[in-house]
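In this section we walk through a basic example: taking a raw amino acid sequence and producing a predicted 3D structure, encoded as discrete structure tokens. The instruction is simple. Fold the sequence below.
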Amino acid sequence: MKPGIALILALACLPAVRADEPFTKGLSQADFEAAGLGKLTPGELARLDALVGSRQAGAVAKTRDETARVVTEKVKAEALRQQSEGIVDRMKVILKPGTRIEYTSLDAEIAPPFREWEKGTVFHLSNGQLWVATDADDVYFGPPIKKPAHVKIIPGSMGSFFIDIEGCGRARVKFLGMAPVPKPSPAPQGN
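The resulting token sequence is shown next.
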């Protein structure tokens, strides 16, 4: 159970004490006599009630303040966590040292017309993936491709990837994400 909630439940389970009722008036006659309070003068009893009331009020105030502080901290921490947890944070994979990572190659097609590439060119694959050319030295200027070309994404070293386009060469690429799926246009309504 969370500490803030446990503290609130503990406070809720405390016996209710009326703030305006003196301590000595809330005791049973047997407890009053067993504590020897019958020997005290009315002034001494009033002083005892004032001391106990003051102590109880301080404890309640301290507990209330501590509860408010704990709950406020928990709420703020949760709000910050939710605020900072964007889609990129949810996509992260945390690896411990020594974890072995294996990548496999990917086969897809690139749709025509495809003419050339240079650094910054985005490749739209038939599976919906988007890859961008990252190396300025990787360029292709050749005849346009008029039919779908076979593409292979090949893992490189240190987390890098290459795109090998059938008949056009190879370029270093970085995964951008998935292409947005186009929404179908509404069907025409007949009259």
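Looking at the output, two observations stand out. Strands lie at 106-110, 114-117, 122-124, 129-133, 140-145, 149-155, 161-165, 169-178. Confidence is low (pLDDT under 50) at residues 13-17. In the next section we compare this with other chains.
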